[in-house]
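[job 4471] stage=fold_predict status=RUNNING
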Amino acid sequence: SIGLYAFSSCSSLTSVVIPDGVMSIGDGAFRDCSSLTSVYITDIAAWCNIEFGSFTSNPLCYAENLYLNGNLVTDLVIPDTVTNIGAGAFYKCNSLKRLYINNENFETLGPYVFRGVTSLSKITIYFAGTAEYWDKHVAIDMTVHTNGAVNDKAAIRARIVFDTPYVAPKE
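[job 4471] inference complete, writing structure tokens
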């Protein structure tokens, strides 16, 4: 865990590495870290499960750029093992363009998942399962969208391409 207000007002902090074992980040942990530009992670499944205490707990609040294994996240493949994306996981992650959810048994997009993402209308979500499964089984918190611009399940559903799992390019 990263504690309450751990790096609050640390204006010289420009990047942060979040270790795989972090399960929660306390309220205000990165509050007023105005120089923060980069968040580095090595396990997207672990990132999707972090419990953020508030928006300012997520270092993306200021950084807006998420790096997975050193690469800027634009196309993100959610592993088959992930069934839920937690609250605020991609808050202000403006580098994100395409999200691939390969688990046909995916269950939940948590609250505020995409809040503050200015390019939300340009994000495409590729889902390995069917539209029927999505409609019947996937819970979408009504607050997953950005700044009130889009406030319903139909709008996020319109961003989804069904029956389209990610297939890694052949080397």
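[job 4471] summary: The first strand starts at residue 15 and ends at 17.
[job 4471] exit 0
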